[in-house]
Amino acid sequence: MEKTLKEKTRETAALYFKDIKGERPYDLWKAFDKDLAKDLSLFITGQMYAREKIPHTTRQLITVAALTVLSRTDELALHIHAALNVGCKPEEIAEVIFQTAVYGGIPATNGALKTLKIVLEEKNMWKIEPLKREPKG
């Protein structure tokens, strides 16, 4: 039996957004329009984020990259939490952020790295070890 959209939304939200401190986008939307908040949540969380075409870790790393390039650090913090919740490693998230420097610029990368550090500190996961470079030659 296929899960209802409401069940998929609840399960996906619990997976991605557990232990998030502060106001979630849904709470903000709901403050302005309860019905629209429900519709947005059902679509974004219950349909887009619940899709199983790619792994949740891949989906979150893509989201981190997009939000980094767009310099959307508030939303980025939420999705860094989500990335960690679905199993992404801090080093992977940092590498994705570094990769975006080519497309979004160093200021966007720096803002995203600061956001990553804040989230890791909140989760008592800071200090990550720098990535080891492969020897040349």
Write a brief caption for the model.
With 137 residues, the protein is an all-alpha fold.
CATH structural class of the largest domain: Mainly Alpha
- Please indicate the percent range of residues in DSSP E strands (runs of 2 or more): under 5%
What is the typical, i.e. mean, pLDDT? Answer: 90
**Distance N to C terminus:** 56 Å
Structural class of the helices, strands and pairings?
Answer: mainly alpha
Main sheet overview: none
Provide the CATH architecture of the largest domain. Answer: Up-down Bundle
Rounded to an integer, what's the Rg over CA atoms? 16 Å
Structure summary, number of beta strands:
0
**Helical percentage:** 55-70%
Number of helices: 8
Enter the CATH topology name of the largest domain. AhpD-like
Explain what this protein looks like in three dimensions.
The protein is an all-alpha fold and 137 residues long. Helix 1 packs across helix 3 and helix 4 runs antiparallel to helix 5. The chain is 69% helix and 0% strand. The chain contains eight helices and no strands. The mean pLDDT is 90. The chain has two domains: 53 residues, no CATH class; 70 residues, AhpD-like. The relative contact order is 0.12. The chain is globular.
